[in-house]
């Protein structure tokens, strides 16, 4: 394990917040400090983000859930994105990512940062490409300088974590795009843009070539690098292939280099992965990346559920958490179809929170066991307020349940088993 | 293994339908015939059910999905139940259960049978108790004769499978209801009614005492007995306790007796089970019940997701299928809150179908692998019609997707990775 000396911004955050952060996770100071030093835990928090509550991600903290927001060029509404942000936070998202690729990105990001007390993540490459498209230029006609400057701008704005596709090498892209290699080639937007750029310009990944500058910027603002999985499988049948593992190997190497410069990293994970491969994938990625916090998208355990992909992702997410994933990126019912609407955002966050709870129960985490126990006790009392208080979505219980004065619900009525139990022992 | 001589009604069904049934499952005649003889597969089909398509359930057939329908005394609408039936069938339910406990049950059942080309299941005990409630009598004031006659009536009507709670013994109920034994006692309606009846009348389970008559009726009409899990855990913390396994042991014994009389059986399974216990539960139940087809409700891997319990159940269902479950009873978003509405029915069926698909992919079942592969190939072509054709819910793709003429969807627009792949290789 390489030695890790926290960047100054991180050290200042730790000095100020560590006791309260550790307490909120039910962990000792020593446990948190040691995990951060080892890189198995990161502290998200850019000092320039106004009103931010810093957040710990990684074992053995509570599993976190991210909601992706952001307009696309084809569907842009400032107000609806702000509504989605509010709904994501109400539903319990621990972080949000602004993945906007439409509208005026820089001022929207400033507004989101101001409105968002939780860590905000971005994919800086989108801003670079969007500027080309806005200028009616070739979308691949950007330079490494443009990308480094975008990272610097966003870091100064207060972005807390950034997806940087530093594992997409020419070798990896060739493996993914070789004839007969994959059914679905590259499905990550950032991955495919990077691959196309490298091919067009005959150059290696610009982030690898400019790594020193990128790491300096991230160290200065304590931006956590979320090492993007640009070659993640987009079909179950592509999961675990050479391209995927080639990228993971590179990510593990980049993670070491970043940490040697005092920069914290997370690793992004798949993608589409069949049920029986989820555990092995999670364990393999963790192993190759020195146990760095793993941030997974899904994984989706089936390919054929468009319109219901939050469910396919919750199945994979639950297993991923059981096997060591730390951070779940939500998937909404709109995935593979269209930009999510407000209700999709709520469903996506709830599905990921269910997955996290399921996995954490399997891991025996006290807060997860306690929640399950308390709602079950409330059920035994037919105590609807107690059920709502311990439900992942209390408002849902109030809206669809029978109300605090009723005993049984409309599902069972006089046939309520719990009421029968109760009567029997009166 | 006891020898099994199919009842005459079953033999007639096999003689007529076996080649087509085997072909539709992609199995050989011998494989199906042997599995039915061993009791690891059952053929649902009561000759009195008009227009029925008989259905195979059990390894290694395609995993089936059941939708529970039926009004409660507190929410009864004939038309809405018929709409739910239509929606359940459209969404792909392989069977339905009419669990009505309100309205005029017998004629509704006749209408459902006529309208329903898939096997229909019931819980006869509900009809018996409902009659007492309609007469303003004590709900526990029914006799074993009443229950046997209800089973006979429904068998003659054409009901294809019946949940009979034959594993709820006085010993099991005492174990479940002992002080400090469980957080949530008995949560099955049929289980709690049976337990209360035994306690009130000081008698053993009436179905065990009248087993010969019940088996005669079921043999005459080829009613498949779905041996109800009246003592299933209703909270994760109760899963795997003595009461649950006591019932499973009894169900295994009853299954042997039924098969010795030519009656087919399925076993009903939990319930609320933490993620890490699902595999062991499924394997244990299968072992104790001689591999009889296992019909699971969920299992729900968390207790705290009212309003989203179809997701908690899909997580458990996927793992259950991976470990050998044969038949998934859907759970809707309304579970634990209220009677499902039409949209809940659709969501519930789809969630179970996703779970089945995920589990079957893990098992390497060819039809499941093919569906995943074909939709992924359609994605690689940006072929929205092909995606719809292979989606679990084609109508959803048509409704929310971009339409066949568009290439990219509104989620990614110009950033579409698949389109970038395509352009690169033109």
Automatic annotation (TrEMBL), chains A, B:
Keywords: 4Fe-4S, Iron, Iron-sulfur, Lyase, Metal-binding, S-adenosyl-L-methionine, Zinc. It is an enzyme of class 4 (lyase). Its cofactor is [4Fe-4S] cluster. One of its GO terms (molecular function) is phosphomethylpyrimidine synthase activity. It holds the Pfam family ThiC_Rad_SAM. One of its GO terms (cellular component) is cytosol. Its EC number is 4.1.99.17. One of its GO terms (biological process) is thiamine biosynthetic process. Gene3D superfamilies: Radical SAM ThiC family, central domain (3.20.20.540). The keyword Endoplasmic reticulum does not apply. PANTHER family: PHOSPHOMETHYLPYRIMIDINE SYNTHASE, CHLOROPLASTIC, THIAMINE BIOSYNTHESIS PROTEIN THIC. This is Phosphomethylpyrimidine synthase. It comes from Megalodesulfovibrio gigas (strain ATCC 19364 / DSM 1382 / NCIMB 9332 / VKM B-1759) (Desulfovibrio gigas).
């Amino acid at each position: 394990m390489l030695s890790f000396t926290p960047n100054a911004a991180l050290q200042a955050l730790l000095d100020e917040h560590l006791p309260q952060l550790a307490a909120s996770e039910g962990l000792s100071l020593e446990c948190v400090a040691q995990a951060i030093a080892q890189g198995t835990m990161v502290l998200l928090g850019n000092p320039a983000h106004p009103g931010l509550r810093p957040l710990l991600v990684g074992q053995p903290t509570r599993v976190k859930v991210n909601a992706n927001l952001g307009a696309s060029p084809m569907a842009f509404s400032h107000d609806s994105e702000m509504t989605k942000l509010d709904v994501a936070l109400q539903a319990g998202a621990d972080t949000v990512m602004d993945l906007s690729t439409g509208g005026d990105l820089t001022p929207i990001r400033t507004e989101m940062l101001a409105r968002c007390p939780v860590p905000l993540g971005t994919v800086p490459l989108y801003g670079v490409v969007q500027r080309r498209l806005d200028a009616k230029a070739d979308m691949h006609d950007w330079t490494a300088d443009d990308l480094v400057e975008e990272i610097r701008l966003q870091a100064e704005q207060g972005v807390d974590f950034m997806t940087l596709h530093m594992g997409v090498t020419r070798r990896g892209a060739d493996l993914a795009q070789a004839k007969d290699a994959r059914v679905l080639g590259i499905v990550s937007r950032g991955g495919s843009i990077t691959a196309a750029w490298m091919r067009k310009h005959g150059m290696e990944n610009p982030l690898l070539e400019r790594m020193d500058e990128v790491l300096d910027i991230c160290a200065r603002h304590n931006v956590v690098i979320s090492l993007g999985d640009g070659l993640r499988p987009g079909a179950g049948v592509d999961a675990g292939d050479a391209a995927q593992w080639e990228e993971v190997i590179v990510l593990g190497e980049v993670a070491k280099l970043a940490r040697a410069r005092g920069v914290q990293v997370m690793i992004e994970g798949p993608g589409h992965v069949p049920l029986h491969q989820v555990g092995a994938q999670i364990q393999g990625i963790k192993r190759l990346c020195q146990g760095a916090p793993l941030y997974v998208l899904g994984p989706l355990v089936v390919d054929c559920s468009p319109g219901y992909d939050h469910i396919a992702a919750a199945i994979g997410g639950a297993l991923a958490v059981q096997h060591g994933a730390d951070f779940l990126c939500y998937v909404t019912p709109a995935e593979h179809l269209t930009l999510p609407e407000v209700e999709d955002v709520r469903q996506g966050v709830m599905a990921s929170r269910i997955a996290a709870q399921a996995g954490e129960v399997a891991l025996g985490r006290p807060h997860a066991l306690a929640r399950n126990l308390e709602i079950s006790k409330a059920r035994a009392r037919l105590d609807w307020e107690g059920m709502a208080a311990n439900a992942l979505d209390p408002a849902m219980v109030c809206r669809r349940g029978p109300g605090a004065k009723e005993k049984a619900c409309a599902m069972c009525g006089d046939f309520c088993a719990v009421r029968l139990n109760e009567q029997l022992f009166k």
